[in-house]
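Note to self: keep these together.
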Amino acid sequence: MFFKNLREDIKAAKANDPAARNWFEVWLTYSGVHALSWHRVAYFFHKIKLKLIARIISQMARFFTGIEIHPAAKIEGGVFIDHGSGVVIGETAEVKKGTVIYQGVTLGGTGKERGKRHPTIMENVTISAGAKVLGGFTVGKGAKIGAGAVVLKEVPPYATVVGVPGRIVRIRDPEAPERKHAAIAIAALNAEAKAAAEAELEEAAKTAAQEYVRLTRGEPQ
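Structure:
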């Protein structure tokens, strides 16, 4: 599982960072990949109740990468932390596959309450530099959080949130590109069918004209 997640993390880095040249460079030099790998080791120790060792590992990761992830946070493979310096991910946070997190992001709580107090980030969310997502709510699939935004309440899927406090400025239609491509394909098929029909009509008209000329001349069939 560890190496599967590592492959997914490197793959995500390659997909989201145009500067990533190859897998070996990403594995060797990307602090976000390193922090996630350290975190998965810490998470293992946390699960088997060796919580002190888990915290020591997480603090070592913070020292070397500048990224602080609580050992209990649940992070799937295929997450990309870009640059990473100053990123903080709290104890009850959950981050799903495809999420991109930029430097200075905090996935935190709003007080000293217990239980679920950190956000759940669904698939393919982008959280821009310096954004703060605070509270035990869900950020929906495909959402985008603008740089420096402070998000204090649930975000619907495919929404774009900006400002302090965060406000929704747009909700994208995830099916719009598919519908556009389908419309283009249908238009192309219609154009092709129309051209074929026009060619057949032209050929029929030509044949009829030739038959008319033959008949007017009294030529035998």
